[in-house]
């Protein structure tokens, strides 16, 4: 029969694996449920049209979300007339959008849009008060703005502030003006909505529309109409998908790591037990089945608990993702029964896979090892472990050197390769490194008076397996936490330095409370403006980020500016589409019109846009374009800009805030990954230390019989734990340092600018403190309970 102490030790050894499997399956279940959920639904302002037709898509680009190219104006008119003649169609309405925002309104990007009044027939909401706009200076606005019919209202547009009179209100977002006024303010047509006669079958109309449109458009009905949701929502969902995918993959990987390390340490501690089983006739196959059976029990129970927890946590995680900006507003999670079932099966498989190496090791235990068990670990290294450890360390060192000479694209992979190689290598070599390193670092303890210091040092030296098993998760925690956070901070700092150095300007005028700067704000400043737009051209009519610039662009960016019917492109775009200096590039603009322009110059890829055009050309084809920034190149400060949604800031401040939203999402993504990694490795720390402490009851009894007080015993254990955690943190820093220094050197070489290494010291201190507190707690508290039981006995 198994004694109570042995049963307690056995339960403690499997607790870490149970928690790791449960948490891993919970994260996988939760992530999969959110990933497989539908979008935000059909856009509210188009939900009233059962059938929608949109323009054909251009060439896709990974991670880039832009609107489809608009139809040419002539073709849009032809399609609208053809669709309007279909049986059962009451009206075919062309949808247009333009930038519109009431000053001081705090609205989301998707609500900063104006539309022609005819497009209100496509919406799922209607007129609340007043009447439709009848003349060009009338407007219908959202109820939530608090305006009443007859009141004057100033609305910011791409041209500047425009005065309107409110003719009515609607119970939905948006600004609606006359069709004639919208045609002046909006770009081309991408969507045509079909309003049907009562009782008409949408499916029949959709089939007829497909025949009429042919290859010039896509017909959408039912739930497929959510494809017309704002591209910002699609991009947000894509970012959230990357976060959830990384969470799921990281959870699965670290779960295998935790389970394998826990079972490996458990098998090492149970060699005497397995030796006794072999002595009484157990075969290696039976020993393997025993370990696999224990792993199966842990996996079945842990995965079941995790699957249930994942289903419960999915709605709450959805809310957090929406608040953080990783999912669009209105997103809802859908519960599918097969997702937790699949996650449960994955959890069981992960538990069995993690126990595989430990099962094979247990089956190789010889019967005589039950009698040859020694107090001091001997021969912890095998030839295979030596070779693998040295190879991984060499690979990590080579990647560290490579980061200093690699390009930006390869640098990230080399940094990760360096961290993973050095972490794996040092982990495998820890048993042989532990004794000399601890001996050198703890030599001063041997000279201190008293027995506590000597006990701490000798216990760490003689129990190489236990010490190494405790150091490993601390090393991995510190290495990856420091590496990920510091790499992100260093890269963002380098990007800010690069952007600030690329511009020669006294200051920058940037939007404040608006998505961009209007012509009125640009004209008031009189500097070098970047009028942002999108053009379509080249192979597959790919979407290209473009800017309309003035001649002052040459002074601010030290680059040739486009003039007349010319265009300037970056080297990557020129290579991708075969554009060379002096050749012709064919581009389609936001109004659907196509122009043939001569390539005046090819610039390097450090420029903020892919294509540069004359500002007048962009404004002529994109009435709703807004400027991202205006660089002031004169010494005279910019005049006050009341009511224009703009403010002047130093160039360095603009460079740091230009990608502030993207940097915020990247940093949140980083913290999520660090938190997951840290949480898992802390589980491993707690599991390893708990198992080790549970197996040291005999040592505690010997110390008490030798005259040590309970306080001295606990102090010895706590001091040993602190030394082990400190050693693991030092090795973790040693793993991260080469990759980080190599990355900083590589960025300096590539940018030609001083790039300082930015180490996330608060996160490093927090991770080390967390490991220290957790390890100390799971060491002292069980030991204290064991000492109390000894006293009662």
From TrEMBL:
Q: Which UniProt keywords apply?
A: Cell membrane, Membrane, Transmembrane, Transmembrane helix
Keyword Heme assigned:
no
- Transmembrane segment boundaries: 12-36, 243-268, 295-317, 337-359, 386-406, 412-433, 467-488, 665-692, 713-741, 761-783
Q: How does it sit in the membrane?
A: Multi-pass membrane protein
Cellular component (GO) terms are:
plasma membrane
Per its record, what are the GO molecular function terms?
transmembrane transporter activity
Belongs to which family? Answer: Belongs to the ABC-4 integral membrane protein family.
What is the protein name stated in its UniProt record?
A: ABC3 transporter permease C-terminal domain-containing protein
């Amino acid at each position: 029969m198994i004694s109570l102490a042995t049963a307690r030790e056995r339960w403690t050894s499997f607790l870490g694996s149970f928690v790791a499997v449960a948490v891993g399956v919970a994260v996988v279940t939760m992530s999969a449920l959110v990933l497989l959920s539908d979008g935000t639904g059909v856009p509210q302002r188009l939900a009233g049209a059962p059938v929608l037709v949109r323009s054909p898509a251009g060439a896709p680009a990974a991670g880039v979300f832009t609107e489809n190219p608009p139809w040419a104006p002539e073709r849009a008119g032809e399609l609208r007339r053809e669709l309007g003649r279909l049986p059962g169609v009451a009206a075919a309405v062309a949808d247009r959008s333009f930038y519109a925002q009431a000053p001081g309104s705090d609205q989301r990007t998707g609500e900063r849009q104006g539309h022609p009044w005819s497009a209100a027939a496509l919406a799922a909401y209607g007129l609340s008060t007043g009447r439709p706009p009848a003349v060009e200076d009338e407007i219908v606005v959202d109820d939530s703005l608090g305006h009443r019919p007859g009141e004057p209202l100033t609305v910011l547009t791409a041209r500047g502030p425009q005065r309107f009179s409110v003719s009515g209100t609607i119970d939905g977002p948006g600004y609606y003006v006359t069709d004639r006024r919208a045609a002046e303010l909006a770009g081309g047509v991408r969507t045509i909505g079909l309003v049907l006669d009562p009782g008409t079958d949408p499916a029949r109309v959709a089939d007829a529309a497909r025949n009429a449109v042919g290859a010039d458009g896509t017909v959408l009905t039912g739930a497929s109409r959510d494809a017309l949701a704002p591209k910002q929502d699609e991009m947000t969902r894509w970012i959230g998908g990357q976060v959830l995918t990384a969470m799921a993959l990281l959870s699965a990987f670290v779960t295998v790591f935790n389970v394998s390390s826990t079972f490996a340490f458990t098998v090492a501690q149970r060699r005497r037990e397995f030796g006794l089983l072999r002595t009484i006739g157990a075969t290696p196959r039976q020993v393997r089945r025993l370990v696999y059976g224990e792993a199966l029990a842990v996996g079945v129970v842990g995965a079941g608990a995790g699957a249930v927890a994942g289903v419960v946590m999915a709605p709450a995680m959805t809310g957090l993702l929406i608040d953080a900006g990783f999912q669009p507003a209105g997103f809802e999670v859908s519960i599918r029964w097969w997702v937790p079932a699949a996650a449960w099966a994955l959890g069981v498989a992960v538990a069995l896979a993690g126990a595989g190496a430990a099962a094979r090791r247990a089956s190789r235990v010889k019967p005589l090892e039950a009698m040859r068990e020694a107090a001091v670990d001997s021969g912890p290294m095998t030839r295979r472990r030596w070779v693998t450890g040295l190879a991984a360390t060499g690979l990590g060192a080579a990647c560290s050197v490579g980061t200093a000479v690699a390009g930006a694209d390869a640098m990230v992979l080399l940094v990760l390769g360096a961290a993973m190689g050095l972490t794996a290598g040092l982990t495998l070599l820890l048993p042989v490194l532990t004794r000399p390193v601890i001996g050198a670092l703890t030599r001063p303890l041997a000279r201190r008076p008293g027995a506590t210091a000597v006990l701490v040092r000798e216990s760490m030296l003689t129990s190489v397996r236990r010490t190494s098993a405790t150091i490993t998760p601390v090393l991995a925690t510190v290495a990856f936490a420091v590496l990920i956070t510091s790499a992100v901070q260093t890269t963002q700092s380098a990007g800010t330095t690069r952007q600030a150095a690329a511009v020669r300007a006294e200051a920058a005028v940037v939007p404040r409370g608006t998505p961009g700067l209007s012509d009125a704000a640009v004209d008031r400043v009189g500097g070098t403006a970047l009028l942002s737009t999108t053009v379509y051209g080249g192979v597959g009519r790919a979407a290209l980020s473009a800017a309309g610039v003035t001649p002052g662009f040459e002074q601010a960016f030290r680059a040739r500016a486009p003039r007349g019917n010319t265009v300037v492109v970056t080297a990557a775009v020129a290579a991708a589409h075969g554009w060379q200096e002096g050749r012709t590039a064919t581009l389609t603009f936001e109004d659907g019109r196509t122009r043939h322009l001569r390539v005046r110059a090819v610039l390097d890829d450090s420029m903020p846009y892919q294509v540069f055009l004359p500002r007048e050309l962009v404004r002529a084809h994109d009435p709703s374009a807004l400027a991202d920034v205006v660089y002031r190149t004169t010494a005279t400060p910019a005049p006050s800009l009341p009511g224009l949604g703009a403010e002047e800031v130093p160039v360095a401040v603009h460079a740091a805030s230009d990608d502030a939203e993207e940097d915020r999402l990247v940093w949140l993504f980083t913290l999520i990954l660090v938190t997951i990694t840290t949480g898992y490795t802390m589980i491993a720390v707690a599991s390893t230390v708990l198992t080790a402490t549970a197996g040291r009851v005999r040592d505690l009894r010997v110390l008490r019989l030798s005259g040590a007080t309970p306080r001295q015993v606990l102090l010895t254990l706590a001091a040993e734990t602190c030394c082990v955690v400190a050693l693991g943190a030092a090795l973790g820093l040693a793993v991260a340092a080469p990759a980080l220094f190599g990355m900083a050197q590589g960025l300096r070489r590539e940018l030609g600018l001083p790039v300082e290494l930015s180490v996330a010291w608060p996160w490093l201190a927090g991770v080390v403190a967390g490991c220290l507190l957790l390890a100390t707690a799971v060491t002292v508290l069980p030991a204290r309970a064991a000492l109390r039981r000894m006293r009662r006995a």
